[in-house]
Amino acid sequence: MIFVLKQNVPQERINQFIQKIESEGFSTFISSGTEHTVVCVIGNTAKLDLNFVVQTNEIIDYGKRVTEPYKAVNRTVHPDDTLVKVGNITIGEGFFQVISGPCSVESEEQIIKIAKSVKKSGATLLRGGAFKPRTSPYSFQGLHELGIKFLLSAKKETGMPIVTEIMNQTQLPLFEEVDVIQIGTRNMQNFDLLKEVGRYKKPVLLKRGLCNTIEEFLMSAEYLMSEGSTQVILCERGIRTFETMTRNTLDLSAVPLLKQKSHLPVVVDPSHAAGIRNLVLPLSRSAIAVGADGLMIETHNNPAEALSDGAQSLDLQQFSALMEDLKHRITFERKLISKIS
């Protein structure tokens, strides 16, 4: 349930209204847009008389029930696009960013070399796995705390914010200096982890589960936001279908649909979607065409010797060529869309 407030309502009156609602056992989420302030009431709102609340609170313009199970991530609640701030970098509508780096951090020398190269090519955030969830227990599992240390060294050398995946809530103390916490596809519905990360109040990159619906994806984002996280980035990384020629099937329709249903920025990971490096460029072009706010692309200085996911990783020269291609397309697509609209 949402209540759209009248314009120029004093903050004191808003606080009084929120305190009254919360005293009845509900939680609230405030969305301040360019034209209106909206109070979203979360809980079993069936027992709340919408008309009575509107009629007895003169600060309310009108109320509306939100039928979807996701509330805080809903565009009805927050009509304006959310812009996620990572240092001096903005991710969201009008601010296209590329996140790049290796699947796994393998050494300090390796991650610094890759960071310098992808930054020169135009990437603005550095990704790298310190903790690696692998299907086989015998596969390389990452360098763990040492991997985060090496990522921080690369950040110091290049100034690039870092993105890395957390596996469970006990690891949170290690992520104090990490700029964006990634929750991977296998943990998208790890609700205890989502709650803890949501309370941590850092930017979060949430990947869609490989067998999850769009609504389930949004509900996982709801877990983060219901705990206080406002800086959430959704990442479409492909879903499992009956197709076997690619690692997963990239659901490009999810991008515009997510942006219609939610105010959160959406990025696309073509590397994990395809699992084949020569499909990364065409899928990246397609992601731009459907309105993605960014890309996450795996790169490696020597993919043939990579300890994980070498087949889908671009080498540094291939990434540079991809970025040159995309720079033209980003400019063209954004100008074309602006002209049409």
How many helix segments? 10
Topology as a string of helices (H) and strands (E): EHEEHEEEEHEHEEHEHEHEHHEH
- CATH domain class name of the largest domain: Alpha Beta
Radius of gyration: 21 Å
What is the CATH topology descriptor of the largest domain?
Answer: TIM Barrel
Q: Based on helices, strands and strand pairing, what is the structural class? A: alpha/beta
Q: Which outline best applies?
A: elongated
Which residues sit in consecutive blocks of at least 5 with pLDDT less than 50? Answer: none
Search tags:
Alpha-Beta Plaits; TIM Barrel; eight-stranded parallel β-barrel; 2 domains; alpha/beta; 18% strand
3D structure, described in words:
- This protein has two domains: 2-64, Alpha-Beta Plaits, CATH 3.30.70.1140; 84-340, Aldolase class I (TIM Barrel, Alpha-Beta Barrel).
- The protein is 35% helix and 18% strand.
- It has ten helices and 14 strands.
- The protein has helices at 11-23, 50-55, 108-121, 145-158, 191-200, 214-226, 254-261, 270-274, 280-289, 316-340, and strands at 2-5, 27-32, 37-42, 60-64, 84-86, 89-91, 97-101, 125-127, 162-165, 180-183, 204-207, 232-236, 266-268, 294-298.
- The strands form three sheets. The chain has an eight-stranded parallel β-barrel with strand order 7-8-9-10-11-12-13-14, surrounded by six helices.
- Helix 3 (108-121) packs across helix 4 and helix 3 packs parallel to helix 10.
- The two termini are 32 Å apart.
- The relative contact order is 0.12.
